[in-house]
Write a structure and sequence with these properties.
Blueprint (H helix, E strand, L loop, with lengths): L1 H5 L13 H11 L3 E9 L2 E8 L14 E2 L4 E10 L1 E2 L6 E2 L4 E4 L1 E3 L4 E3 L3 E17 L3 E17 L2 E6 L8 E7 L4 E12 L4 H17 L7 E11 L4 E13 L9
Antiparallel strand pairs: 1-2, 3-7, 4-6, 4-10, 5-7, 8-9, 10-16, 11-12, 11-14, 13-14, 15-16
């Protein structure tokens, strides 16, 4: 708003030559966000008071219908802010079941409302991982080498060339705006000596981290059931059944 005023300000003008009413109109024309403006001369100062328009808050449109379950689970807590609950603690529900109806009032005089609430339930997620516990495998030993080069008109100009002749390695390319890099991580064969406690700990850490990427913020893991199964080639299958308490209400009501 101040830019609008300064765009028509001329320094060095006499006070008696300043038409404050005209100035007010010009500033209003330059910016539609001005609700009203008052310009007055006080001594050698031109005082400008501006009130901006404030847009009214956007009122969310009430949506009628029923709230359903987005996944199956066993209900643990129910909070209804608007509408009528169709479930109770201990009920087992399936995906798509109605949890909160968009109805209030008595049975004789019901009326439609926009349903709102929270239905917490124990839900179930199953994840598994295969880990090798016997034999040998190729692992990084900490040795690293790299290429650094420029790519000009399809030709590579090396600033550094890898000199270590790794027989087995992981190769990772990194493309920067100017320099290109290729990292070589040497690998060597090592005996695997993992105990059952080791593999369960490793699998639990990795699988739990993976599960949290798909859970909402209010979700809480309340229990885990871990089972293992040996295979014939020195591997173990670790299976974890997670019991997760979370809000299972769909965000939007629908007609069901």
């Amino acid at each position: 708003l101040w830019e609008a005023f300064y765009s028509i300000y001329v320094s060095g003008i006499k006070k008696q030559d300043v038409d404050v009413k005209l100035l007010e109109r010009k500033v209003e024309d330059l910016n539609s966000d001005i609700l009203w403006i008052r310009i007055r001369i006080e001594g050698s100062t031109l005082k400008v008071t501006i009130e901006e328009k404030v847009n009214p808050p956007i009122i969310a449109e009430s949506k009628m219908g029923n709230l359903t379950a987005k996944t199956s689970g066993e209900v643990t807590r129910v909070y209804v802010f608007s509408g009528r609950s169709k479930v109770h603690v201990g009920d087992v529900v399936e995906e798509g079941d109605i949890l909160i109806e968009g109805i209030n009032g008595s049975e004789e005089n019901p009326y439609e409302v926009s349903p709102d609430g929270v239905v917490m339930a124990n839900t179930f997620y199953e994840k598994s991982m295969v880990l090798k516990v016997e034999g040998k495998e190729m692992v990084r030993n900490g040795e690293i080498d790299k290429d650094i080069y420029l790519n000009i008109l399809g030709k590579k100009i090396y600033l550094k060339k890898a000199i270590k002749g790794f027989e087995e390695y992981d190769k990772i390319k990194v493309s920067g705006k100017l320099f290109k890099k290729v990292y070589y991580y040497e690998k060597e064969e090592k005996e695997i000596t993992l105990s059952e406690e080791d593999i369960i700990r490793i699998a639990e850490e990795e699988l739990t981290k993976s599960l949290y990427t798909v859970l909402t913020r209010e979700a809480k893991i309340i229990d885990k059931i871990i089972t293992t199964k040996d295979t014939e080639n020195g591997e173990v299958v670790i299976n974890i059944l997670y019991i997760v308490e979370q809000n299972i209400l769909n965000d939007e009501p629908g007609d069901y």
